[in-house]
Amino acid sequence: MSAWRRLQVKLRTAPGFFASIQLTRRHARQYGPLTLCRSLSTGSPLQNKYFKDLKAQLAGFRKKASDALPGSSWTPLLVSPNLPPARVDIVIIGGGVVGWSIAYWLKQKEMIREGARILVVEKDPMYSQSSTVLSAGGIRQQFSLPENIHLSLASVNFMRKINDYLGVMNEDPVDLQFNQSGYLFLASEQGAQIMEENYITQRNAGAHVSLLSPTQLKQKFPWINTDGVVLASYGLENEGWFDPWTLLNAFKRKAISMGVIPCHGEVTDLKCTTKMLRSDSDEIMAVKRINYVKVQMLNSLEYQPVECSIVVNAAGAFSGKLTKMLGIGSGPKDSIAGIPLPVEPRKRYVYVVNCPDGPGLDTPFLIDYSGVYFRREGLGGNYIAGVSPEEAEEPDTNNLEVDHQFFEEKVWPVLAHRVPAFEKLKVTSAWAGFYDYNTFDQNGIIGVHPLINNMYLATGFSGHGLQHSPAVGRAVAELILDGNFKTLDLSSFSFGRILSQEPMLERNIV
Amino acid sequence: MSAPLTSLHRCCQRSALLLLVARRQWCSSSASPPPPPLPRHRRLLLFLTQRYYDIEMLVNWKSQLKRKWLEWKNIGPRSSWRSEVTSQYYVLRLRGGFRYAGQSEWFRADHRGRFRQDFLKHKGTPLEEVDMSHTDINFTGLRNLASQQSLRTLKLRGCPYVDDWFLSRLHVFEDCLEELDISHCPQITTGGLAALRNLKGLKRLDVSSLPRIEIAGLVVILLEEMLPQCQITATGYNLDLSQAGGEKEVEELSQRQR
Ligand SMILES: Cc1cc2nc3c(=O)[nH]c(=O)nc-3n(C[C@H](O)[C@H](O)[C@H](O)COP(=O)(O)OP(=O)(O)OC[C@H]3O[C@@H](n4cnc5c(N)ncnc54)[C@H](O)[C@@H]3O)c2cc1C
């Protein structure tokens, strides 16, 4: 009897046993063998499993729902991963070569690791409009102001040892593709005197420049037509051109490796507090201090206010727009607040031409007295050329379209006259870029703005910002961290000269 | 409970993304093939430097010391009594060799870097030939030779620190230099060769086996155009343009450089 009973019990449990096996099989199909093991080993798994199932199904449903929405990675709560931190020490607006150079030098000079949190905000991740990558990439010492010559010399020393400064361990060394071809300036009768004065300034500053008479010029560069040339000056050393993109990337790579935070977004607003101060001349001035920088994320409505103690305005051609947001330039006419930052975009065209019979490897960066310039580009018989238009004929700066007529009328005649081989050139492409043009005196503006006591300006380089960026970055870092210039005294580039209306005119502007 | 967890999660996500972004930017710029794997000790070092600041610091110090040592060697003798023979001392200290003008005897250091002092006898005589092949001469060191304004031959074969900046400085010999050998220098590129245009008196130039010159055939032609009186030696390259599809290569290069 008892044996029979036992058999019955067994039979009764058997279907349950089978059922549970069936169930786990189904699960195994869904979740793999792991679940099978677990469900066999635990005592009462069924209830838990039900919830798990439900959870998984809900998760699946949620995923489907979010996938179905336009812009699939959308979820209601997730914060955009590229948002900048809410609080940093220094915000650098503008991720061009000047901005990244400042970031690098700030990190280089800080005493302790992570001593300062530095954020670089760049609105254009492709750099499609930045002057840096659209420039001609030249570097020269042939300026008329000693400050500019010293800036060039310091920068060229930096470039010579670029891998000591910007090399990152275990990454490829930086190759600037520097072409040691020199600059050749030509002067007509009117310009000869100035050229001679400049030559003396340049020699005194330590630049290796030589003056050439038309005969010597013809001897050295037989392919030049010396008509109208009275004097020429040629840089023997430390002049030429390089790849701007490489320099920008090298600064960026090193700065990021040192802990600078990069961010793609646009600074659309600057929140500040205002204090009323009485100046020496009894003028009441509203002095501002920026507390927050509003960083608008790209292609989204999201933004982040970033609290900071120092702002660096390195926005190139658009730095004037930034200071305008703070009301600079919109005050009463005869007050300090009425003087705007005199930096605006000016469109410049660069034409790529092909001419197999051109001067080849022999070509320096030639600058004619008319302002037309050209240089070699690569080895395949290509050259780039351009000229700055006259003040009255400045093109519209709303876009970067190229005016090909301009080449036919203004550039080609001069090129063909200077180098007869260029009669037969072909334009193969062209581009346009914005000069960060300082309308006041075509020189950089470096230093604090008198009415915004925590905004440092590093802008307005008007066509020579790329070559000066290494030295300017160091100078701005010194100004911020040490309080004054240490290696190169650039105090004459401060905003003060605009207030006192004393321009520092550079005569060799291309 | 869940709030801190999610924020942590987000935090991780963000840093991972940041890393990703940072990386991606750099790899796109140079589409070079992946570098060969490092030897084991370098990999270990890399691993350690990525995790410990101290090790990174040490590695940095090491490379800094190496640079300092190179600079120090190249600065040359500074004491004033040697000022007349600065170049000579410098050349011998770097284990190079030289020949005075109008003499046939060469002065060289032996393999242990020792040299006889009898070159002092000819103190006032200028140098005519300097052989710095396989030495550590660099841009700074060239300054020690700049006073030799009758130098006619300069041999720089296989110098690891001779680069484009060095070549641009050679204009100090623009009136005298006739023969220049820069073969096997690993750092020289076309951008530096352009600076040789200042040496209009150059009669012989050796640019053999420069590893960083990409299309040597074209470069040699351009050099010949630039220095018409100069005889250019360029071995160690596949110069046959037509055979190696040179035309295409030239086109490609010009495209790339654009
Ligand atoms: C055709 C041409 C030829 C040139 N040739 C030479 C040359 O031969 N040698 C030389 O030294 N210089 C040359 N220059 C000048 C040189 O390019 C510039 O002076 C230099 O690049 C300025 O650098 P930057 O970093 O200040 O400006 P940019 O490179 O313009 O960088 C500023 C960045 O700020 C960003 N930005 C602006 N506003 C905001 C905002 N609100 N929020 C976030 N980001 C913002 C912009 O997107 C931009 O990327 C040339 C320029 C041109 C146009």
Query: Fraction of residues of chain A in helices?
Result: 25-40%
Largest interface: A-B, 42 and 52 residues
Structural class of chain A: alpha/beta
Radius of gyration of chain B: 25 Å
Q: Uncertain spans of chain B, ≥5 residues at pLDDT below 50? A: 1-32, 243-258
Derived from helix and strand composition plus strand pairing, the structural class of chain B reads: alpha/beta
Number of spatially distinct domains of chain B: 2
InterPro entries (chain A): FAD-dep_OxRdtase (IPR006076), FAD/NAD-bd_sf (IPR036188)
Main location (chain A): mitochondrion
Protein name (chain A): FAD-dependent oxidoreductase domain-containing protein 1
Membrane topology (chain A): Single-pass membrane protein
Explain the overall architecture:
The complex is a heterodimer of chains A (510) and B (258). Chain A is of the alpha/beta class and 510 residues long. Chain A has a domain of 62 residues. Helices cover 35% and strands 23% of the residues of chain A. An eight-stranded mixed sheet of chain A has the order 10-9-8-2-1-11-18-17, sandwiched between helices. The radius of gyration of chain A is 32 Å and the shape is globular. Chain A starts with a helix and ends in an 11-residue tail after the last helix. Chain B has 258 residues and is of the alpha/beta class. Chain B has nine helices and seven strands; from the N terminus they run H-H-H-H-E-E-E-H-E-H-E-H-E-H-E-H. Chain B has a seven-stranded mixed sheet, covered by helices on one side. In chain B, strand 1 and strand 2 form a beta hairpin. The radius of gyration of chain B is 25 Å and the shape is flat. In chain B, 28% of the residues are buried. The N terminus and C terminus of chain B are likely disordered. Chains A and B meet through helix 10 of A and helix 1, helix 3, helix 6, helix 7 and helix 8 of B. The complex binds flavin-adenine dinucleotide. The site of flavin-adenine dinucleotide has 42 residues of chain A, from helix 4, strand 2, helix 5, strand 8 and strand 12.
